[in-house]
Amino acid sequence: MDRLKLDISVVVPLYNEEESLPELMAWIDRVMEENNFAYEVIFVDDGSTDRSWEVVEQLAVQYAPVRGIRFRRNYGKSAALYCGFEAAQGEVVITMDADLQDSPDEIPELYRMVKEEGYDLVSGWKKHRHDPLGKTLPSKFFNATARAASGIRLHDFNCGLKAYRRKVIKSIEVYGEMHRFIPVLAKSAGFKRIGEKVVHHRARKYGVSKFGWERMIKGYLDLVTVMFVSRFGKSPMYFFGTLGTLMFLLGGGTTVWLIVEKLYRQNQGLAVRSVADQPLFYIAITAVILGVMLFLAGFLGELINRNSPERNRYLIDEKIDK
Description:
The chain has about 325 residues and is of the alpha/beta class. Helices cover about 50% and strands about 10% of the residues. Strands 3-2-1-4-6-5-7 form a 7-stranded mixed beta sheet, with helices on both faces.
C-alpha cells in the first residue's frame, strides 16, 4: 500500500473496547470499499487492560490497511490522538471513537466537505444524543461557554467524529486534555474554515463509558488554558505585565492618596486617622505586591520563551523559491 497516495486516514483511539473493534473495522472497510477510497486505519491502544491489543493484531492480519500503536500505560485521549496524527498519511484524517457510537457511514460526506467545499476541519454534531441527562445538560452548558470564549460556532466541541485536512493535524500539538479544543487550536494555527455536520449518534452497544463527571471540571480548566496559550503563548508579558502594571498603579495611587489626605487633614487641623489603621491601606499594599508579582511572572515567561526552541516556529502554508 502506497501511503503517499492515501485518500483517508482513520484514527481510532481506544481503551478497553475489545468487543466493538471487529464490528467497527468491518463497517469501516465496507464504507471504504463502496466509495473506492484508498485508506488506512490507525488504532491507538491507550493502555487497555483487556484483549483490545490482541484484537488489533488480529485485525492487522485480516485487513491490510490496519496499523496499530500501543501505549505501555493509559495516557489519555489527547496523547492517543497526537500519536495517531503523527502516523497518519492520508490527505484527509478522520477521527472517531471505538465504541460504535460514531457511524462510519458519515465518512464519505465528511471527506467531501473537506475536499470539495474547502473546509480545513469539519466537526460532528450529535444533535440527537443517546445519553442520560446527567451528560447532555452539562455538555450543552460547556459547549455554550466554549462557543462564547472561542468565537467558533460549533454545537459539539467534544464530538469524537471529526475530519481534518492533513495540514491541520500536522500543524497543531494535542496534549493534556486538549482533544476537546482541537478546533480552537486549529483556529489559533490559522485554519479558519471550520464547519459542522449533524451526525448520527448511536447508543453504546458494548461496555461502559470511560469518562466521568470530572471531565467537566477538566474541560473548563483546559478551556482557560487553551484560550490563554493561543492568545498570549508567544508574549506572556502582554498579559501579566499589563495586569501587574494596572494593579501596581492602582495600589500605589491609593496609598499616595491616603498619605496626602492625612497630611491635608493635619494641615487643616481636622481629625486624623493613622494610615496604617485603615483597611484600604492594606488592600492597596496587597495590590502593589500582587502587581509586582504579576509583572515578574510576565518577565520570567518572556525569558523562558526566549530560550524556547519553538520561539520562531511559524506555520508556513505555501512557499515559492527561485
